[in-house]
Amino acid sequence: MRVVRATAELVAPAPDEPVVAADGASLEWDNDDELVIVVEGDARVSLVTGRYSRPRVRCVGRARLRLETRMASAPTVNVEDHAEARVRTYGRSTPVLRAEGTARVRLTSFDESRPQLSTRGSSQAQVIVQDDSRPYWDDWPAGWTARRSEIYLGQRVLEFGTREDAVDAARILYEEWNRCHNRYLACLRTPGAIVMVCDDVVDFRWREGTVHLELPAPFNPRAWYSTDAHDPEPYCEARRASCTRHYLEPEE
């Protein structure tokens, strides 16, 4: 396989066989021609895809890939072995990301992108949702729609049937947090918990709304939840200031 170090080495005519990205390579691909890129060994590589390009990428060994998908590009990326991919999706791109082995994927989606993610074996992933993007992890329930500012770590995703069930879950998460003092771990241990981009915030969806939980923090000494912080308007600082708070611990 041919080794490439720069975008100029990828230009037409596109290679008929896979190419290997050299360590430190910085590549861009917006061509409609077929292309297979292999990132292997301990290589550190960055790749940007654009227009309607659909390259196939294999990231194997202990390689590290930084990928940006732009416009309407739709790369297919397999991350295997102990490899790691950090992916940022923009525009209306629709990448397909597949993690296997003990690989790790960190995905941040922006604009109106629609990335698709699957994890197999002992692989791990994190999904951060921004703007109007709609990422989808293949073990989520049918019809689940990720929302702006949510973070997914592989926790069990579900929608509660009643507000009371969602409140009960918020109380359970607070108990877990009291044991480990780690918001991510508490969410992984509590079905239905959704980590939010805001520090120390966790949401629980139910059929007709959202229960909003804030854990203790330097500017929020007491844990509390609200059943009207999100509905019917999106959450914002003004909503936070005016919502009804139910405290989970007594005032000192």
Provide key terms for this protein.
2 domains, single chain, mainly beta, 252 residues
Would you give an account of this structure?
12% of the residues lie in helices and 36% in strands. The protein has helices at 163-180, 183-188, 237-242, and strands at 2-6, 19-29, 36-39, 44-49, 56-59, 64-69, 76-79, 84-89, 96-99, 104-109, 116-119, 124-129, 136-137, 150-152, 194-196, 201-206, 209-214, 224-226, 246-247. The termini are far apart. The chain folds into two domains: 2-152, no CATH class; 163-247, no CATH class. The protein is elongated.
Topology:
Blueprint: E1 2-6, E2 19-29, E3 36-39, E4 44-49, E5 56-59, E6 64-69, E7 76-79, E8 84-89, E9 96-99, E10 104-109, E11 116-119, E12 124-129, E13 136-137, E14 150-152, H1 163-180, H2 183-188, E15 194-196, E16 201-206, E17 209-214, E18 224-226, H3 237-242, E19 246-247
Parallel strand pairs: 1-2, 2-3, 2-4, 3-5, 4-6, 5-7, 6-8, 7-9, 8-10, 9-11, 10-12, 11-13
Antiparallel strand pairs: 12-14, 14-15, 15-16, 16-17, 17-18, 18-19
How many helices? The count is 3
What is the count of distinct domains? 2
Tally of DSSP β-strands: 19
Measure the end-to-end span.
68 Å
Global shape: elongated
Output the structural class: mainly beta
SSE ordering: EEEEEEEEEEEEEEHHEEEEHE
Proportion of strand residues = 35-45%
In summary, what is this structure?
With 252 residues, the protein is mostly beta strands.
